[in-house]
Amino acid sequence: MYRKNINFKLLVFLVLITFSIQIVISHPTKTPSSSPTPSQTPNITETPTSSPTPNPENECESVFFTFNEWMFKFNKTYKDPIEFKNRFKIIKQKLEIFKEFNLNNPNASFTLQLNEMSDWTEDELSNLSTLTPPVDHCDTDSSDSDSDSDSDSDSDSDKGKGKCKKNRISYYSPSSSNETMPNTNLLRAPASFDWRSQGILTPVRNQQYCGSCYAFAGTALLESYIKRKTGGAYDISEQSVIDCSYRKYMYGQHNSGCQGGWPTAVLDYFNDMDIVMESEYPYTSGISETHGYCLKPFPTSNIVRGKLRVTNVRVRSEDQLADVLLSKGPIIIAMVADNEYKANFQDLGTGIFDMEHTITAQPNHAVLLVGYGIENGKPYWIIKNSWGTSWAMGGYGKIARGKNMCNIMQFGIWYVEQ
């Protein structure tokens, strides 16, 4: 009996020793410089210090998941972790703006959404809105200069400024009417109309990092005009306009490559040069962010026979604007499209863009006006933008009609005819 008791006590002692050793192995003492090996089990009360993918500043998983989805959708890659972190911060700020907007505007008529440009810096976004109207006074130090000079030697301070020609300069070219359109018998306009349904519009383009909305609006107008008149579908080269109208002082106004320009100069340029196709002169400034050398001579296209009459005219009302849209086809308008709005127009999603506060800024972006309608009792315009198909609704947006939204009445409208 005594030996059995000894054996039993010895067995219990050995079991306790074995169990203690297992505990020590499973829970080793941590030091600041050590970390668990793959065979060790970390303390479950500790917060993990890493994750399978880099999560900047340990942000909320839902935000980072949204960022990853957005990167995948738009095939985004970054050169290093620093850029990754900076772009993530921009997206995070965007999402916070969207959340605040939704909380403060529960009855808003439009939504905000991420698009291809959502990780752009303020400097990069500034390229989207560079419409540059000519000055309405003479530059005394340049009035005697060669107005047809092709030189790139002008200082950066002159970018976007028109020079004098015959001691006069205005917003309008000689081929345009610089007066307000007289009152006319307005058409019995339908409640809604959309030139897209007529099949005359070409696909939405993307100006990317180049301030070339003036060129894209001009080519979009001419493409729709040609298709409406002849049925022919053409993809006209914006790059040829950017390169070959650069610093061409036509009628007292000029374009400045990726630094902005003016639709009248573009449309007058089409009268002076053969029109070249995108396939022969592809767009490169969206990545290079600058104009290139004009690659002349162009192949003769003859897609427009005879001269175009370019008209830039002010209308008296938005009702008259609808009248011109119906009778003349798609038209170019200038609008304010930047951060003066509490909600960023560059983030527009679905619905009708409409803000209560008055905009007094000078229009800085050119788009094509293609239609109008009424949605839930709210009248709107339809615009074709040049910011790619991820913006708004496939590259087309709606803005409130009847209240000079985005200051669209200031610079009048542009259309062409023969």
Automatic annotation (TrEMBL):
Alphabetically ordered keywords of this record: Disulfide bond, Signal
Segments forming domain Cathepsin propeptide inhibitor: 67-125
Domain of life assignment: Eukaryota
Xref: CDD domains: Peptidase_C1A
Pfam families linked: Inhibitor_I29, Peptidase_C1
Molecular function terms, GO-annotated: cysteine-type peptidase activity
Boundaries of every Peptidase C1A papain C-terminal domain copy: 189-413
Amino acid composition bias (Low complexity), ranges on this chain: 28-52
Stretch forming the signal peptide: 1-26
Annotated GO biological process: proteolysis
Residue segments, region Disordered: 28-58, 128-183
Composition-biased stretches (Acidic residues): 141-155
InterPro entries given in the database record: Papain-like_cys_pep_sf, Pept_cys_AS, Peptidase_C1A, Peptidase_C1A_C, Peptidase_C1A_papain-like, Prot_inhib_I29
Bias (Polar residues): 170-183
Family according to the record: Belongs to the peptidase C1 family.
Protein name, per record: Cysteine proteinase 1
Upper lineage: Eukaryota, Amoebozoa, Evosea, Eumycetozoa, Dictyostelia
